[in-house]
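Before the break, one more example. Copy the sequence into your notebook; we will annotate it together after we see the structure.
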Amino acid sequence: MRVALAWLVALHMTLALPVAADECNGDCTDRRACRETFDATVAPVLARCGSYSGRGERQDLLRQARDTLIATGLLPASAFQGVTIQWCPLTGSGMVPDPDLVLLNPGLQSNLFTLTSILGHEMKHVEQYRRWGADGFKCRYSAEIRTFKGLGRGNSVEREAYDFQDRVEATLKNASSPRQAP
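Here is what the structure looks like once it is written out:
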C-alpha cells in the first residue's frame, strides 16, 4: 500500500502538465509529455518486475483464469492476442503499464476466483489502450490522477475496469466457478 501511495503521489507531483483532464479525451495538446511522464513513473515497477525470478511461474493458473474469461463469454479469445501476462511483486493486485503487458501480484495465486476477477479488470485496461491508443490511455489516466481522482472508482478509467470486474465476479458466482487454486 505504501508503494502504491508513493506511486500515486509521484505521478501526481510529476503531472504538472498544461493539459486539462478533458483534453485527453480528444486532442490532447501534449500527448508526448503525458506518455513520457506515465512511462517514467512506471519505469521502476517495470524494472522490478523484469528482475523478478517468479514472473513466469504458475502459467497454468494464468491460463485457467484466461480460459475462464473466454469460456464464460466475458472476453473473446482475440482479446488476449499479443498480450503478455506475468507475475510481479506489486503492492496492488495488478497493472497494465504498456498496451500489451499485464502484471499481476503473485499473491493472487492462491485464489482462482480473485485471480480471474483481477485479470478481467486488467484486460479492460488492455481494451482501453486499444480503443484510445497508448498515448490516449496514458493521458487520460494521468489526467485522472492529476485531478486527485485516485486509483478507485472515482477515476473514470478505473471505474470502467471496476465495473467489468463486478460483472466478472457476478458471472463467476452464477457459474459456481472454483474459488481456490489447486
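The first strand starts at residue 84 and ends at 87. The two ends are 28 Å apart (CA to CA). Try to locate both features in your own notes.
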